[in-house]
Write a structure and sequence with these properties.
The protein is mostly helical. The protein contains 10 helices and no strands.
C-alpha cells in the first residue's frame, strides 16, 4: 500500500469531516436557512451514497472476497458484512437519545426563538450532546471515506463529497445552541470543528488497527460493511432530514440527480 495513497485518503477524510465547520459558518452568517437548497443537497448526497454503495462498493467487495473464498462463499461473506455494517451504525444511532439527536433538522431562525425561551444550561447541554453524538457518528463515516479512497481514489472523492454535504446540517445542529448558551461564536465554532475531527481520527484508528491484517479478505469485508453503513446513513438520516427541510419532491429530485451524477462519474472513470 503506497504512502501517497494513504495521505490522499486521509486528506479526503479530513475534508469530509471538517464540513461541519461549513454548517457552523452558515449558522452564524446566514439570516435565514435555505431549506430548499439543503433539501436538494441532502437528497443528492443520499443518491450518491446509495448508488455507489449498491452498484460499486458492494460488488467490489464481492469480487475481492470471491477471489479469496470462491464465488458462493464470497457472496455469502459480502452479504453478511453488508448487514453487519448496517447493524453497527444502527447500534451507534440507538445509543444517541432522540431529543439530542443532531440529525433532527434545525433552522437558524428557530434556534433564535429557542434562545429567547430556553435556559442557557439546556441549550449548552443540547449543543454538547449534539457535538458528542456527531463525533460518535463520524467515526464509521471516516472509516468509510478512508477505505473507499484507499481502494479507489475516484470512488473516495465521491464518498467524501457526499459525506461532506451530509455534515453541513450537523454543523448547524452543534454550533447554534452552543453559541446562544455561551455567547461566543469562537467557542461554538471550535466545538463544531472538533466534532468533525472525529472523522479522520476514526479513519486513522481503523487503519492502524487493521493495517497488519490487511489483505483482500479484510478489504472485502470492510468494504461490504462500509456499503451497509452508507445505505443506513442515507435511509435513516439523509432522506428523512431532506424531507423535513423541504418538499418531498425536492428531496427525490436531489436523490435522482445524485444517482445520475454518480453513475456518470463511474462510466467516465471506468
Amino acid at each position: 500500500m503506497e504512502l501517497d495513497n494513504v495521505w490522499f485518503a486521509f486528506g479526503l477524510t479530513l475534508f469530509a469531516g471538517l464540513a461541519t465547520g461549513v454548517g457552523s459558518a452558515i449558522a452564524f452568517f446566514a439570516k435565514k436557512t435555505n431549506t430548499r437548497f439543503l433539501s436538494v443537497a441532502l437528497g443528492f448526497s443520499a443518491g450518491v451514497m446509495i448508488y455507489v454503495s449498491m452498484i460499486e462498493i458492494f460488488f467490489k467487495a464481492r469480487d475481492s472476497l470471491a477471489a479469496m473464498f470462491g464465488d458462493t462463499l464470497g457472496y455469502w461473506y459480502t452479504t453478511i458484512a453488508f448487514f453487519a455494517g448496517i447493524a453497527f451504525i444502527g447500534v451507534i444511532d440507538r445509543l444517541v437519545p432522540s431529543f439530542e439527536n443532531p440529525h433532527e433538522p434545525r433552522k437558524v431562525e428557530e434556534m433564535e426563538e429557542d434562545a429567547e425561551t430556553a435556559k442557557k444550561g439546556a441549550l449548552l447541554r443540547m449543543g454538547l450532546f449534539s457535538a458528542l453524538a456527531i463525533a460518535i457518528h463520524n467515526f464509521p463515516e471516516g472509516l468509510a471515506t478512508f477505505t473507499g479512497a484507499l481502494k479507489d481514489p475516484a470512488l473516495g472523492i465521491s464518498i467524501a463529497v457526499a459525506i461532506a454535504i451530509h455534515n453541513i446540517p450537523e454543523g448547524i445542529a452543534v454550533s447554534v445552541p452552543l453559541y446562544y448558551a455561551t455567547g461566543s461564536k469562537k467557542k461554538a465554532f471550535g466545538l463544531s470543528f472538533l466534532s468533525g475531527l472525529a472523522e479522520p481520527i476514526g479513519a486513522l484508528i481503523g487503519y492502524f488497527l487493521l493495517l497488519r491484517y490487511m489483505n483482500d479478505a479484510v478489504f472485502g469485508l470492510l468494504f461490504a460493511g462500509v456499503a451497509g453503513i452508507m445505505v443506513f446513513i442515507s435511509l435513516d438520516e439523509l432522506l428523512p432530514t431532506a424531507e423535513k427541510y423541504g418538499e418531498h419532491h425536492l428531496a427525490v429530485y436531489g436523490l435522482i440527480a445524485g444517482m445520475a451524477v454518480m453513475a456518470l462519474s463511474l462510466l467516465l472513470f471506468a
